[in-house]
DNA sequence: GCGATTCACTGATCCGTTTCAGTGAAACGC
DNA sequence: GCGTTTCACTGAAACGGATCAGTGAATCGC
């Protein structure tokens, strides 16, 4: 049944005595009389005709696919985000082509280019390296919606940006209020130099608040973070608090603490960032981003962008502190 | 740059003085001399030529896309599985088109058919309803790899099945050994009647072991499970143990227990199923499936199947009990 | 040294749509 | 009543490759 040759538009044309062009128009309700539309619809249904997406894509230049390039799917919160976006896109009759940059800027670049070559109608990206130069060129020919950070040279991109400034300030302020002065920051940044705006801001903000900040790095996954955390938590200069730049990283710190027999927040306070569903269960105090809102806005923007009905647009997401038991 | 018109095969042909056909062959290393291959490669590189995937797909009938139809991406373990498969497929130069049946058999059917219509080269499915009749028809024309349960009428499908019989027995036996006789089973099954083989087996196995079994249902997500669990955990006939058919469901039970002030395993023992990364952290005793092995086998099978080089094949995955602190 | 094979490559056709430039007829304006 | 629009539809040309049936030359066997 599946392989039995499918009907083509020509057969429908033949059955209705119309030209293929007329059928094509009728099926999309263009330029034709209501009566013809009916006739074509009926014939199509009878023949079990279904437009061939590939042929349609070749002729029209539109595939109905939206590329979703995730920063790192090691990160559980980003997994949730991807799932949400995939579902929302399907509800809008688009397919999401989900790819994982795995925290690697070079891979991000490669995949972004491949996605373009695959002729996706538009791209949603949660950039690993928002400052990379190729974004500008890419955005020239492909509608892009950035999530999290704005893209450099983003004159072509719409954005759902997180107000990380507020998020970071909120978290650090909270730690300070609870009496923690000596705090380690665990970020998923690649290099050990604080090159991302967020990192720079963490340090500046920490200084403003009179905090003693040490920035550490790890991968985006739970176990990588656990390894890094175990190292510096075992040291003599154990920080009073660890501010993790994602909940996944915080889970890694929990793991490390468990292995070292450290209690949270007794021996060390932990602050997360994202608010993954599991964090409530673990009692992780964290900075919440409205994931449903992000999904909704990103999908709305990308659909509009792929339809060409979008003025460049920036949506800002505000954070909220979820006070639980880890600080 | 991105939108600048791309070179076509005909331009490469012109540049090399060959026919388009020869270029097409050369690019794939077919029927041509090594010297010509070099010449074509060079010219292609110079012109920035890159084969148009859509055109290629239309002409060849192959898209390079593998459909991945997940049972429910509410389930965190299935999220991990999907991420793993997506990554492994990309490494093999295939794109994964990931869709979520959301535990809904009707949706599963619809999406499976849509995936076929999208002309994916093959399908990986973790079936919600493995007994559904349409699988047989679908498999007729589309290579399918089933994960978890075998598909009905699966003469066309390869399978990576879980030995749930052993998994369930292992779990129940362990509960029994720990002295729990009165156990509730929380499954993500739709109907409240035990219609899935696994459920039937749970009951049979429970009886054999002298266990008192009550099967309950919930969705596949953490919060749905939490709601159901809170209900029956608050009742007078609170079971001694809850056996959850996925770790996500178990997380829901943790949540419910927390809300009710019940301690685990003091007031109620919890047994999971899957072994999601977070379970180690939570100390959830659970049944482990080798996720990397499953990914590897499924991808191997589906790639072979889409290349047409596969005899029907069944791989069986064996479970392992992870003893932690929840029972 | 001659027929049979193999090899490298060509021309044409096909895949199944969309879309552009018409075309004839009816409706319209005045 | 005549020129102009509008309408419903047609024919043919894309879209950009893959593939099939050759074709001419070189190679082979003996």
Q: Total number of helical segments of chain A?
A: 13
Structural class of chain A: alpha/beta
- The percentage helix of chain A is 40-55%
Tell me the strand order in the biggest sheet of chain A.
2-1-3-4-5-11
Which two chains have the most extensive interface, and how many residues on each? A-B, 49 and 49 residues
Query: What is the residue-averaged pLDDT of chain A?
Result: 90
Low-confidence spans of chain A: none
SSE order of chain A, one letter for each helix or strand: HHHHEHEHEHEEHEHEHEHEHEHEE
Radius of gyration of chain A: 25 Å
Q: What's the story with the biggest beta sheet of chain A?
A: 6 strands, parallel
Strand content of chain A: 15-25%
User: In total, how many beta strands of chain A?
Assistant: 12
Give an overview of the whole structure.
The structure is a homodimer of 327-residue chains. By secondary structure, chain A is of the alpha/beta class. In chain A, 46% of the residues lie in helices and 17% in strands. The first copy, chain A, has 13 helices and 12 strands. Chain A has helices spanning 9-16, 20-27, 34-47, 53-60, 76-91, 105-117, 134-141, 164-177, 197-208, 222-234, 247-260, 277-282, 291-307; strands spanning 65-70, 95-100, 122-125, 144-148, 157-162, 182-187, 212-217, 241-244, 269-271, 286-288, 314-317, 320-322. In chain A, the strands form 3 sheets. The first copy, chain A, has a 6-stranded parallel beta sheet, sandwiched between helices. In chain A, strands 7-6-8-9 form a 4-stranded parallel beta sheet, with helices on both faces. A two-stranded antiparallel sheet of chain A has the order 10-12. In chain A, β6, α9 and β7 (212-217) form a beta-alpha-beta unit. In chain A, α1 (9-16) packs across α2, α1 (9-16) crosses α3 and α10 (222-234) packs across α11 (247-260). The termini of chain A are far apart. At the A-B interface, α4, α5, β2, α6 and α7 of A face α4, α5, β2, α6 and α7 of B. The structure holds a DNA duplex (30 and 30 nucleotides).
